[in-house]
Automatic annotation (TrEMBL), chain A:
Name by which UniProt lists this protein: UPF0210 protein ENJ10_06515
Family matches, as InterPro entries: UPF0210
Pfam families for the chain: DUF711
Family according to the record: Belongs to the UPF0210 family.
Subunit annotation: Homodimer.
From TrEMBL, chain B:
Record-linked InterPro entries: ACT-like_dom_sf (IPR045865), ACT_dom (IPR002912), UPF0237_ACT (IPR022986)
UniProt-listed Pfam families: ACT_6
Membrane-spanning segments: none
PROSITE patterns per record: ACT
Superkingdom assignment: Bacteria
Residue ranges constituting the ACT domain according to the UniProt record: 70-144
Entry protein name: ACT domain-containing protein
Coiled coil: none
Length: 453, 155
């Protein structure tokens, strides 16, 4: 089989000019076998298992990068939801467990470790509640640990007690890290229908039905999709979709290939490739720019949701053909602070939370890395979470909220988190009172759609 | 390669404890388990799916037989580029299978398909040495295993 020169040059252009990389290779590690009735022993078990299992993860990924000339931006770890591993312990114990996870992540050389998580869509166990209460302190006192809480599913409905509690926890987390513009909240995701094999931080955790160890991959590549869309400037929609689909095929194949190699070399099973398009704050690595290249003046223009739907579907078509195991989120991410185009749209007031809520229905998660004024009430945040959950639950899809009420700041100001987290212009969230609705308590029943047997 | 994972090892250990009954000291159990594993695994191969000892020996970078590498280089044209690159490849015992070169307005591009199966130099070193040759000519040299192109551009 002869490889043609244009194909080689295209690959080089993708990696060298268009920032094509594999966004993350995430090793999922089961910690259920670490459970112990003694806290020091539990902590030791977790540390030992992580150090033993992931010892070669970063080094292996780096070897694969060198061999195939495709860079892997992040090497990460996800673990069994810690509420399960530490059930029975108190909140202060969970803070200690978070410290152990942080130490292991540090020594293993990974930037983030996901799985300080609880699944409470139907109700809380004692461990779930303790873990959630530990989140503000755990996220403030650690560097690498990420937390997520699943509060709703299509089968169980929406746990509104958890939604309200998370509204308060988000406020508390922001206030604890007030000196850094509430950065703790950037490591905290509230989910509906959370996937168990998601490789993307901050929402990654190693689901309870997963094997002992597994490698999952998240692709990237807004830059190459942007080029494909630009090349299709004068075409109609079917041709535009075709351009995106073909490019998505190539980047997914690269992602799948790299993931399989990393798994194979460590002799552990390969899980899935998550075909989400994930932006970074780097110029040219933006989802918003893709939507603009389709013919919108800016994100937020009427037609934005349709453009995103087209993009998302075309990426899936290419990706599904390219990989036998597609999983995780597999949709486009539209984080505000991590996407240059979204940042400028938010600054100009072109994109609003209401429009983003609409976009949620056709993208990967929804309200992601959004900063709101520091005086936003917990009930308002809870209401936003409930709305996002309703979209997820009713449409049988994953939705999520990662929101930062920036302490002491208001509309017109910005929070700069630096690096991958980027800059978040503070966006207005409606102040219309919803407290009676949020305070009702209990669970919003599962939709008829969830009863499908 | 044997693929014993932790749960299999645990199962063997439990079996050993049952067999040994009263004499199940940690040392005895370990001995029985070791024997059981060595019966299952071919000699010289460690077993656990997540054994760090074994991981140390993972031959990441050993090029497989028939491994083909694609070297791409581009930059401003100057005299002796091709000679420099091919001389170094020859020194590395890398066989040139195919070569395609273009010069467009002083901009030099080359693609060389290399068979490295006769080379005893590790892949990383080939990569590094070729990059160094590139530097002397002000070229960007990219060395990649052929499989990535096959994967991305062929169904």
């Amino acid at each position: 089989m002869r490889i043609e020169l244009p194909e080689i040059l295209e690959t080089i252009r993708m990696t060298e000019v268009e920032h094509f990389d594999i966004r993350t290779v995430t090793m999922g590690i089961n910690l259920k076998d670490c459970i112990s009735d003694s806290l020091p022993k539990l902590k030791n078990n977790i540390y030992e298992k992580l150090m033993r299992t992931a010892a070669e993860h970063v080094a292996t990924a780096e070897k694969v990068e060198a061999q195939y000339g495709i860079s892997i931006a992040n090497k990460r770890i996800s673990v069994t939801p810690i509420a399960l591993v530490g059930d029975g312990y108190y909140a202060e114990d969970f803070v200690e467990i978070a410290a152990v996870l942080d130490k292991a992540a540090d020594n293993l050389g990974v930037d983030y470790l996901g799985g300080f998580s609880a699944l409470v869509q139907k109700g809380f166990s004692k461990g779930d509640l303790s873990l959630i209460r530990a989140i503000p302190e755990a996220l403030t006192s650690t560097k690498h640990v990420c937390a997520s809480v699943n509060v709703a599913t299509t089968k169980a409905g929406i746990n509104m007690d958890a939604v309200y509690l998370m509204g308060k926890i988000i406020k508390e987390t922001a206030e604890k890290s007030a000196d850094a513009d509430g950065v703790g909240c950037a490591k905290l995701v509230v989910f509906a229908n959370a996937p168990e094999d998601n490789p993307f931080i901050a929402g990654a955790f190693h689901g309870i039905s997963e094997p002992d160890v597994v490698v999952n991959v998240g692709i990237s590549g807004p830059g190459v999709i942007l080029r494909a869309v630009k090349e299709a400037w004068h075409t109609d929609f079917p041709t535009l979709a075709d351009h995106i689909r073909r490019m998505a095929f190539k980047i997914t194949r690269a992602g799948e290939f790299v993931g399989r190699k990393v798994a194979e070399l460590q002799n552990i099973p390969y899980g899935i490739v998550d075909i989400s398009l994930a932006p970074t704050p780097m110029p040219g690595d933006s989802i918003a720019d893709i939507l603009k290249a389709m013919g919108l003046e800016d994100v937020g223009a009427p037609g934005t949701t349709a453009a995103l739907a087209l993009l998302n579907d075309a990426v899936k078509r290419g990706g599904l053909m390219a990989s036998s195991h597609v999983g995780g989120m597999s949709g486009a991410f539209i984080p505000v602070s991590e996407d240059q185009g979204m940042i400028s749209a938010a600054r100009a007031g072109h994109i609003t939370l209401e429009k983003m809520e609409a976009m949620t229905s056709v993208c990967s998660v929804g309200i992601d890395m959004v900063a709101v004024p520091g005086d936003t009430r917990a009930e308002s945040i809870a209401g936003l979470i409930a709305d996002e959950c309703a979209i997820g639950v009713s449409n049988n899809k994953t939705t999520a909220v990662r929101i930062i009420p920036v302490p002491g700041k208001g509309i017109g100001e910005e929070a700069d988190y630096g690096g991958l987290l980027g800059i978040a212009p503070i966006m207005p969230l409606s102040k219309i009172d919803n407290s009676h609705f949020i305070h009702r308590g209990g669970r919003i029943p599962a939709p008829v759609k969830g009863i499908n047997n | 390669m044997s693929q014993l994972n932790e749960s299999e090892i645990r199962r063997i250990a439990e079996l050993a404890v049952r067999q040994l009954q009263g004499q199940a000291t940690p040392a005895n159990v370990e001995k029985v388990v070791r024997e059981a594993i060595s019966r299952m695994a071919p000699k010289g191969e460690a077993s656990s799916a997540v054994n760090p000892e074994r991981m140390k020996n993972v031959p990441f970078s050993a090029p497989a037989k028939g491994a083909r590498i694609i070297l791409t280089a581009f930059g401003t044209n100057s005299i002796g580029i091709l000679a420099g690159l091919t001389a170094e490849l020859a020194a590395l015992k890398c066989d040139i299978v195919d070569l395609s070169q273009k010069i467009m307005q002083d901009f030099f591009t080359i693609m060389i398909l290399v068979d490295s199966s006769n080379s005893d130099v590790p892949y990383e070193e080939i990569r590094e040495r070729m990059a160094r040759v590139g530097e002397t000519f002000n070229l960007k040299v990219i060395v990649q295993h052929e499989d990535i192109f096959k994967t991305m551009h062929r169904v």
